[in-house]
Amino acid sequence: MKLESYVSGEWKSGSGEGRVLVNPVTGAEIARADASGIGVAAAMVHAREVGGPALRSLGFAERGALLKAVAEVLGANRERYGQIARENSGNTETDAAVDIDGGIFTLKHYARIGKTLGDATMIVEDGRDQLARDPVFFGQHTWTTRPGVAVQINAFNFPSWGLWEKAAVAILAGVPCIAKPATATALLSHEMVRDVIAAGVLPEGALSLVCGGGEALLTSLGPMDSVAFTGSASTAATIRSTPSVLASGARLNVEADSVNATILGPDAAPGTAVFDLAVREAVKALSVKAGQLCTNIRRVFVPAEHAEAFGEAVAAKLSGLTVGDPADDAVRVGPLINRAQREDAEGKIARLAAECTEIARAPMDDWSPDTGFVAPRLMHCADPAGASAVHEIEVFGPCATLLPYDGMDSAVAMATAAEGSLALSLFSSDPEVQMQVVRDLGPWNGRILCVDEEVGKNHTGHSIVVPQCVHGGPGRAGGGEELGGLRGLRFHMQRTAIQGGPGLLDRIGAASVTAGL
């Protein structure tokens, strides 16, 4: 099977041999993807000139209705997508739900936002500033849709959610999308987009798909276009320095790899509810999607006096995990997406071993070297303050490191050694500890999850990204920001200061919806 790209209103097959997609359980080829000769530059023009005007002619509520229709198409094919996620990504049923249902939920969430915004096509911020002595000259800020294309380059670990969370925000803002899924797991993205296009629920040019290399997407950028990239920091650096990206003035949003952390407060002693909740969350980090989440816990900071007990508690849980073929309902942990990712993870674990020792590992059968299986494990670093690898290396798989600390000031200082992260979680019921983490680590993290006895199990989890909250992180994590409900529209719209008389501003207000972005 060779995946096609949907560009300029047509499904087209690349002219090259293409890259191989495999079943990570067997290593067998299941498809190929190639985008050579499909006319990416023309597809960018088509999206701008056909898809853009069609979307901008609709009000927010109408665009929201489009998203709802897309979600309904995907929901009707949900069972088939689960099978694809297992065969191409090695997902268990739970793993597939995180990706597939997460994408559908995000589409529905933004559909509801569109409904609340009504028939308007512009947003005006509440409040005016008087700019002259007499009340005849004011300034007010408006948000209007940028007449460009949203180029979306997605990561391999979320071929559904990564696609639809970006598309939902752009389409609601009135901007057409060209999505380029990571080739290794592009089969799910391909099949989902094919179903949506076949259903005819979107205007022509509103959604395009490039399966294979996407270099031409960057060379075809214009000043009103945008690029939203999710992936490695090294690839992000290449995109940032691409001459066409620099010269075009296109907007760039990056979500890169990060060495995320969780902290157990000094009060989170063995036997407390928050201790048990932290153990539960660490085990999830070593099992859900085989650890392949951008927001996953990589470092676990534990008070030195509780570190041994925490390690033993996690080890006990790991011993009960079943690693293997996700077609077996008893399996909790599937493989990484292919042999290359397994070898990458194993190589990074070996680098961590220079500073750490392994203290727990889930049992796992021997598998062919062509597969993606990696046994979940917990490492221990005896000197985290003097170490460097544990704060720099992200093993994109089922591996985390236990880091003992003496005093919250030490934990906070070591948490910043990762130089910016997507997510951090705190397990503590101590109000002073909570405030210290929010105040001192807020600048270093895009999201902080605080779990205490009041929250208990009623939280979405360290790794789960929800559309109501912003997603992204500073520094090494890329400096980008996605989602966040209405805030997500900012990337695709232009805030303009309108200066004029009250009559003009009243007319603008009557044609707009008032909201705070």
Describe the structure.
With 517 residues, the chain is α/β, with parallel strands linked by helices. It folds into two domains: 40-257 and 479-514, Aldehyde Dehydrogenase, Chain A, domain 1, CATH 3.40.605.10; 261-468, Aldehyde Dehydrogenase, Chain A, domain 2. It is 36% helix and 20% strand. The protein contains 16 helices and 24 strands. The protein has a seven-stranded mixed beta sheet, sandwiched between helices. Strand 17 (377-380), helix 13 and strand 18 (399-405) form a beta-alpha-beta unit. The longest helix is centred in the first third of the chain and has 25 residues, at 93-117.
How do the strands and helices of this protein lay out in sequence?
Blueprint: E1 2-3, E2 5-7, E3 10-12, E4 19-22, E5 29-33, H1 40-56, H2 60-76, H3 78-89, H4 93-117, E6 123-124, E7 129-130, E8 138-145, E9 150-153, H5 161-173, E10 177-180, H6 186-199, E11 207-209, H7 215-219, E12 226-231, H8 233-240, H9 243-248, E13 251-256, E14 261-264, H10 273-285, E15 299-303, H11 307-318, H12 339-352, E16 357-361, E17 377-380, H13 389-392, E18 399-405, H14 408-415, E19 421-427, H15 431-441, E20 445-451, E21 470-471, E22 482-483, E23 493-500, H16 502-510, E24 513-514
Parallel strand pairs: 1-5, 6-24, 9-10, 9-12, 10-11, 12-13, 14-15, 14-19, 15-18, 17-18, 19-20
Antiparallel strand pairs: 2-3, 4-5, 6-8, 7-8, 8-23, 16-17, 21-22
